[in-house]
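subagent[fold] <- orchestrator: predict structure for attached chain, return tokens only, no commentary.
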Amino acid sequence: MIPATGYTGKTVAVFGLGASGLASSASLLAGGATVKAWDDAEVTRAKAAEAGVPLCDLTQEDWSEFAALVLAPGVPLTHPEPHWTVKQAGAANVPVIGDTELFVQSLNAGAGEAHLIGITGTNGKSTTTALIGHILKSAGRDTQVGGNIGTAVLELAEAAPGRHYVVEFSSYQLDLTPSLKPDTGILLNLTPDHLDRHGDMAGYAAAKAKMFALQDAHDLAVVGDDDAYCAEIARNLTGPERQLISVEHEVSDGVCVAEGALSQRREGREVAGCSLLGIDGLRGRHNWQNAAAAWVACRRAGLSEDEILAGFKSFPGLIHRMEQVARSGDILFINDSKATNADAAARALDSFQTIYWIAGGLAKSGGIEELKSFFPRIVCAYLIGDAADDFAKTLSGHTAIKQCGTLERAVTEAFEDASADGGPAVVLFSPACASFDQYRNFEIRGEAFRSAVAALDGVSLKSEEAA
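subagent[fold] -> orchestrator:
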């Protein structure tokens, strides 16, 4: 755990007692602060009390005594309106920060002992974070991986000379981390998402651009160049060194990938590269973008081309994101439960040719209209959840459709059809929807897919193959 020593002898309010709130409370207490923590949910408060968190009803407190409000990232900061704690903090001129800010303050106090690689973007940030962490660890570097990817940043090991922190930042977390100054900052891409929390795309892009706000000439900014929002952010960078990444065109300074060939370029000239073809954990153009970002970051961290390529080849992929869970002859079963919007599902659909597609759930704005260019690859769509009827209307006339209702039925029917048709194919679970109509989160949904596949006859699970 990393103690938050910047608040020694001060009183700090903490609101939202999920994983980040619990870690913040423990870190502040370890650093010598007085903590007054609260959550609107009684069950959550009870769990926090069991963990030793000092509870205090913040509606009854004098906010002028607080040095800061540490807010859980899921609590509204600005839209659709500020949470009541944010309003209280504003009225008392109390800074509103997150656990990521406590983490960054601790690193900044370490006088450059450790190196921070920050990753953000609409899609691919978890995979890129995991990939960079994997490559660094495989090369023998002292590496800690956390943030939005799963492990709360304050639960990572304390800073030490030469240690690399690879941290995923959501837009919510970036809004709550005003001191962020990563040695290497990565922005992969931007597509409409979380607009209810940021108001519009301008607000969303502004939140993501905070990754680079404090960087200077000693730092590196890695920016995707394949969408207009990121391209504009890249053009406006003046402080750090800038490296572009693209899977659509060549770049003068940075890394581009075409037909699986990764090329690092400097002033328009190729200086290094490798092939990504045949690497299962980096299948598809979206993973080529992730690999391009990882290449730049790991080269900056001092790794050789051979070390990075070895890390690429041994990368197992991210659970629930284009995860190969099983095989039956020429039929692959791919768990892409983390694809909670159409843009994320597009990345999976773009990676295969003969697809038996399981989709549906709680749809986001726009549905699957933007996926029409991939419909010719879909042999049949197996629809589940609340979005099933709307998705069927969009797919009608383009491919066969089966209304399955449940994930278990969809898996069974997709496997039966793929087996009967013969030939190489993929049963692809890439919902293009949130999970909340049938499952508490995408992880539980992904495990349900894995269980349904495991129940089929004649299927070899990936875990069994590895054993």
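orchestrator: received. Logging for downstream: The chain has three domains: 5-97, 105-314, 323-466. The radius of gyration is 23 Å.
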